[in-house]
């Protein structure tokens, strides 16, 4: 009896946790000829021969279980192999969409499913071939999304960084103002990482998040603080800032210090960084909630950005007057001497497009939109009929929009141009603002 208990103990130690994989092949149209098998190939054995899945009840759902997993993160994809590929093990591959909600590490360039083992067995969701869920597989109306991002031409080492902004609301959305090291040495990996964040997530209407990302080998590490506020950052403009020095980082809201990190925690944040802002849809439900791709367009607004250099003992602003004013952009227009627009790169669910950066009556407006909703704005405030001129015709049309409650039916450019008060709707305040704009 003791020997049996010892054997069972050793087995449980060697093969501690079981994982069940599930794949729905009902949406796969091109079934291979001849004999074939379904497998889950993953990093647990360096992407070698995977775990075989079977459809035992002929319902099109293939499942397989392996009890050979220790604690940790695992990535995998589904494959179909058979006579058609000489049983290579990699004939047809079924990955999640890159950057999708089921792409385990959505921030990297690999599209893999994945899971974490933490002292318990695990069963995956039933994934359709090449998808996260059946809705995405059958919905042909969505061809992806496009967000917005902008970064400075120059990098800065230490200083005070300020903006006045209003974030986008809605689950899954992130609006940001941050600094980030973009000059990576690929040979150093995560040892390059330096980042200081101010972020508002659209699912939280009374908090602001402050984070630092630090270099590490092999993994970087982070410190995050979520600060509660007595306002909704998605409904009101407020001033946000942080001071970055060799010995501390302090964050401010409306010029009041609300959080700080000090030495030695900040000692490795010593690489020059670019000032950046972006609006994107994250596929991290535990952080930002589940994003609804049909809830577009979304907007975030920036009134200005200021930069002060770190000049201890010689400045005129900030903590102990240790910072000196260098420049300000009030966003009356695009300043190519300061900024570069983000284009193409995938972040979360969406890429970035230059057309999603717009400038209207002294504000930078970022747009997150469906890929099919093209933007070609004429940059004229209140020009709701896209005539190229703002006049009384536009005012009449705005009144009609109010009376018929048809703001949601306007195209993106008309929404931007007519929403003079940046509150996501049209009312009498916008009409008064535009009349004053015409008279001026």
User: Which structural class is indicated by helix and strand composition?
Assistant: mainly beta
Note the run of SSEs as H and E.
Answer: HEEEEEEEEHEEEEEEEEEEHEEEEEEHHH
Radius of gyration: 26 Å
Residues in helix, %: 10-25%
Q: In a few lines, what is going on in this structure?
A:
This protein is mainly beta. The chain is built from 6 helices and 24 strands.
Give a verbal description of the structure.
Helices cover 12% and strands 39% of the residues. The chain is mainly beta. It folds into 3 domains: 2-138, Immunoglobulin-like, CATH 2.60.40; 145-370, Jelly Rolls (Sandwich); 392-439, no CATH class. It has a 16-stranded mixed sheet that branches. Strands 2, 3, 5, 6 and 7 form a 5-stranded antiparallel sheet that branches. It has a 3-stranded mixed sheet with strand order 4-1-8, with no helix packed on it. Helix 4 (392-404) runs antiparallel to helix 6. The radius of gyration is 26 Å and the shape is globular.
Feature tags:
single chain; 16-stranded mixed sheet; 6 helices; 12% helix; five-stranded antiparallel sheet; mainly beta; Jelly Rolls; 440 residues; Immunoglobulin-like
């Amino acid at each position: 009896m003791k020997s049996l208990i010892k054997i069972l103990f050793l087995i449980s130690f060697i093969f501690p946790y079981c994982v069940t994989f599930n794949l729905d092949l009902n949406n796969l149209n091109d079934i291979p000829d001849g004999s074939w098998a379904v497998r889950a190939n993953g990093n647990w054995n360096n992407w070698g021969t995977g775990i075989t899945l079977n459809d035992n009840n002929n319902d099109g759902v293939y499942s397989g279980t392996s009890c050979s997993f220790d604690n940790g993160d695992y990535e995998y994809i589904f494959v179909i192999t058979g006579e058609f590929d000489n049983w290579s093990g990699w004939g047809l591959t079924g990955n999640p969409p890159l950057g999708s909600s089921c792409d385990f590490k959505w921030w990297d360039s690999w599209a893999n499913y994945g899971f974490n083992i933490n002292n318990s067995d695990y069963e995956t969701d039933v994934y359709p071939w090449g998808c996260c869920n059946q809705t995405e597989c059958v919905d042909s109306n969505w061809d992806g999304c496009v967000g917005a991002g902008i970064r400075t031409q120059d990098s800065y080492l230490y200083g005070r960084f300020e903006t006045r902004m209003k974030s986008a609301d809605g689950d899954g959305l992130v609006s940001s103002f941050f600094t980030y090291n973009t000059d990576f040495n690929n040979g150093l990996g995560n040892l390059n990482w330096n980042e200081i964040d101010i972020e508002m997530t659209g699912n939280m209407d009374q908090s602001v998040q402050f984070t630092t990302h630090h270099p590490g080998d092999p993994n970087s590490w982070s410190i995050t603080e979520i600060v509660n506020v007595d306002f909704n950052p998605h409904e009101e403009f407020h001033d946000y800032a942080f001071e970055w020095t060799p010995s501390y980082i302090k964050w401010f809201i409306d010029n009041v210090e609300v959080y700080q990190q000090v030495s030695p925690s900040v000692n490795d944040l010593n690489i020059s960084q670019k000032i950046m802002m972006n609006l994107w849809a994250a596929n991290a439900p535990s952080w930002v909630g589940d994003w609804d791709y049909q809830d577009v367009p979304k907007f975030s607004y920036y009134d200005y950005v200021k930069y002060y250099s770190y000049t201890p003992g010689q400045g005129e602003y900030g903590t102990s007057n240790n910072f000196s004013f260098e420049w300000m952009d009030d966003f009356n227009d695009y300043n190519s001497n300061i900024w570069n627009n983000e284009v193409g790169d995938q972040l979360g669910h969406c890429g970035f497009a230059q057309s999603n950066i717009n400038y209207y009556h002294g504000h930078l407006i970022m747009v997150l939109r469906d890929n099919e909703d093209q933007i070609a704005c004429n940059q004229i405030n209140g020009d709701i009929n896209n005539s190229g001129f703002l006049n009384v015709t536009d005012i009449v049309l705005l009144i009609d929009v109010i009376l018929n409650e048809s703001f949601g039916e306007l195209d993106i450019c008309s929404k931007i141009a007519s929403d003079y008060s940046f509150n996501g709707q049209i009312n009498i305040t916008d009409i008064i603002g535009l009349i004053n704009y015409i008279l001026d």
